[in-house]
Amino acid sequence: MDLQHWLNEALANHEKWTADYGSYPPHSSLQVDPAVFGSALAELQDRLRDNYPFFHPRYAGQMLKPPHPAAVVGYLSAMLINPNNHALDGGPATAAMEREVVSGLAHMFGYGDEHLGHLTSSGTIANLEALFVARSLHPSRGVAYSSEAHYTHARMCGVLGIEGHPVPVDGRGRVDLDALEELLKTGKVGTVVVTPGTTALGAIEPVHLVLDIARRYDARVHVDAAYGGFFTLLAGTDLAPEPWEAIGSCDSVVVDPHKHGLQPYGCGAVLFRDPSVGRFYLHDSPYTYFTSDELHLGEISLECSRAGAAAAGLWLTLRLLPLTRDGLGEVLAAGRRAAVRWASIIGESAELELYQEPELDIVTYFPRTDPLTLSAVDAASHRVMEAGMNAPVDPVFLSVARASAPAFAARHPEVAADVDGARVLRSVLMKPESEDYLDTLHARVLSLL
């Protein structure tokens, strides 16, 4: 895709649109010396080189990758206008686009036409909103989440002043269902958070089973699918359908288009199955919401100003890569295929050991050391990561995840627990290019041992 061509098209169309309103002299306060601008821009470009190559498949560290060119063009096209999706008078076109993409996301998760939702600036804010509604519905009951859930839930419980209840996990890093039920029996929990795709291991928690248990104890279920949500597109083909199909019966769900939705940062989403929860957002503003009797997005959001450009970028992307298995789903499937194949290669390796079988596109593994102890594994994993990212020639970028001694013992009892835990290597293969680059990546990791 020729990004330069489409950026030029976007700029030209913007100029045509602005010309419809007539010319006017620019104010002198906004003028800058071209030479000074050129110098500052050169400095900026130089400073931006101090980044890791998120765009390249040699970067297999965190959940980072550049947005799709369509997202860039869509975002820029709207950014030049700078609409604010808080109220319809701040961005009527992008507000309509936001409703369209949110409706698409809702149907992807199995919600009906009657739902409530909007884009957010991040998954953190999206989860905050879901827990805000949870507190409003059950003000005297807390929130349960697995110990492998994202740290945002414990943090947001603190922000909201509600009790958070971490639940132990099983041998695959998923919420322990027996421990969850014992907690629910106490009556202390009003909402259970379930994560189909944990951010450390990519483990798919059993949404369908959690939902069944929670309903027995009159508890709501919130799905934190910030990372894993778009894998719903692979349900029934590449992935077992049950956890993903159950999301449509859960009370709320969060997904981050700025992860697997190919968007730039600043694009999360929260959706509620019951639109009546919008009553908890009610507020009055003396100077907005006057241009239309239609519900404004700011009336169902904790955030006020939000970039309409985020909606435009996502809208244009989904016009080209729709929410289907053969559309956006194939982008995710490529990364998952790479993860599954790398796990197989590691399983046959004499130098590396798979920590846990990947379920999505995260691979965890560690060097086989002599002696085979947690302290040796920890040191070796850290050394490989550091050596790869600091290599002056042919660098490779990995990350690490810390595993406790009990978690290690559940998966690898042969590793002596001489310390309380160890770091293991962790690679996120969320770029579809990782599928073709995998053999090169594996060989490079082996060379660092």
Give a quick summary of the entry.
The chain is of the alpha/beta class. Helix content is 39%, strand content 13%. Helix 11 (328-347) packs parallel to helix 14 (434-447).
Assigned CATH superfamily of the largest domain = Type I PLP-dependent aspartate aminotransferase-like (Major domain)
Protein structure class: alpha/beta
Number of domains: 2
Secondary-structure element order, N to C: HHHHEHEHEHEHEHEEHHEEHEHEH
Count of helical segments?
14
Low-confidence stretches: none
What does this structure look like?
The structure is a single chain. The chain is α/β, with parallel strands linked by helices and 449 residues long. It has two domains: 77-283 and 293-320, Type I PLP-dependent aspartate aminotransferase-like (Major domain) (Aspartate Aminotransferase, domain 2), CATH 3.40.640.10; 328-447, Aspartate Aminotransferase, domain 1 (Alpha-Beta Complex), CATH 3.90.1150.170. The protein has 14 helices and eleven strands. It has helices spanning 3-19, 34-48, 69-79, 92-108, 123-137, 152-160, 177-185, 207-216, 242-245, 308-320, 328-347, 374-389, 405-411, 434-447; strands spanning 116-120, 142-146, 164-167, 189-194, 220-224, 252-255, 268-272, 352-356, 362-367, 399-404, 421-428. A seven-stranded mixed sheet has the order 1-7-6-5-4-2-3, with helices on both faces. β8 and β9 form a beta hairpin. The longest helix is centred in the C-terminal third of the chain and has 20 residues, at 328-347. It starts with a helix and ends with a helix. The relative contact order is 0.14. InterPro entries: GrpII_AminoAcid_Decarb, PyrdxlP-dep_de-COase, PyrdxlP-dep_Trfase, PyrdxlP-dep_Trfase_major, Pyridoxal-P_BS. The modification N6-(pyridoxal phosphate)lysine is found at residue 259. Belongs to the group II decarboxylase family. It comes from Lentzea alba. One of its GO terms (molecular function) is transaminase activity.
